[in-house]
């Protein structure tokens, strides 16, 4: 085993902030290393992202070709192509699908070990998830974007603030997505088996997050309602609209601000759910 | 007879285990149907922005997505779970399947029969029915037969793709999501008129891999529309043959894979 695993520092009484920052950093590192071991799966997943990129890009471009004014929902062809390919790259960075670790640990009773640690479960899992996202950003974000740039004309961001805003937006999206997945998984505290809520999440997050088609294709009232009333458009639609420069500078920044609000709300909710669950938790097993 | 009883026992055991957490099962049942609903909703939403996609109207496009969804849902229910093969190979649990006196593939399928996907099939066929009603099809005996055969051929084709992509795990355990590019990717490809796709990509998926014959060509034959891409009118009637070819290939790949399999050992 890696020796660093044994030397993760714990929170000390002398300098509590620095110690917890070190712990958080060490957990991010461990999350990164965990995913860095699945090299072949990373390659296979990237290939799949690229195939789906082609499928979605061709369909949306065909829509643009015959739409009125060739700008469906206010995107031109280059923006739509960028929307699709950045979306394929972000899919595994945000990590919408496939995280059932918390639910599995609750069901098996392993969660008891997590509760004994000197760090709150929400914080610990968040740090590991940030490490995972960092790994995905370094390995899985680039290739689809490159494939898209080779085969399709992509929109090039024109404003100076677009790329920094996009970076902030992606970090917020990772946090929001983690918080949502945490809450969905945490239903296992009450249901024992979280498959149902996870299915609903998988379903809703893809469509209402903007993966299959830009949410602007919905009637405007529906799109606005989704944005304000649910965190889902903040997962993919917001970062993608930011990088594609779909809106003016004010709305572009406003959408990111809305994401920040959702990040706070969702993390607070995750913390609340965790505390409620701890009060009634009966660990499974003998 | 004994074989059948054993299969029935495997199937009912699966049904019992799936329904033991009743709330979760019901949510999953409707959630899975929702996935197919959203595939169709996506097509409807895209048509809000445009009167035609790839030269096809909404009615015609719904016939294509209906054929594809019905076939895919049927294949996903019966054969789709074979894609869990890689976790069996990794864990070595495939050994337990191989030592039993029953063929491996049916056992694997019944051990994991995803009952939760049942409503998808119902929904897929409802969409297909509505699409047939919405289009003005000039029924001839040939078209009636084609209509009856196409969803089954599509299911056989998708089933073969599921088996072939799962067999990849015999050679490459860490193939991860690679298979999804062709199973779920194939479903997405067949959900739209293939005239929307660009040159080499269409050539690869539609003709080299055969996905063009799942829904697009049969839909053209049913509608009596000439193919804007230039294939002759009778090519829609090839879909059962293409499905048979795919099934034969899948059988060969599966057998080779099973022979190639070496257990992980201890």
From TrEMBL, chain A:
It comes from the Bacteria. Keywords: Membrane, Transmembrane, Transmembrane helix. The chain crosses the membrane at residues 41-61, 81-99, 163-184, 196-215, 252-273. This is ABC-2 type transport system permease protein. Pfam families: ABC2_membrane_6 (PF06182). PANTHER family: INTEGRAL MEMBRANE PROTEIN (PTHR36832:SF2), SLR1174 PROTEIN-RELATED (PTHR36832). InterPro entries: ABC-2_transporter-like (IPR010390).
UniProtKB/TrEMBL annotation, chain B:
Keywords: Membrane, Transmembrane, Transmembrane helix. InterPro entries: ABC-2_transporter-like. The keyword Membrane applies. The chain crosses the membrane at residues 25-49, 61-80, 118-134, 146-173, 194-216, 236-254. It comes from the Bacteria. PANTHER family: INTEGRAL MEMBRANE TRANSPORT PROTEIN, SLR0610 PROTEIN-RELATED. This is ABC-2 type transport system permease protein. It comes from Actinoplanes philippinensis.
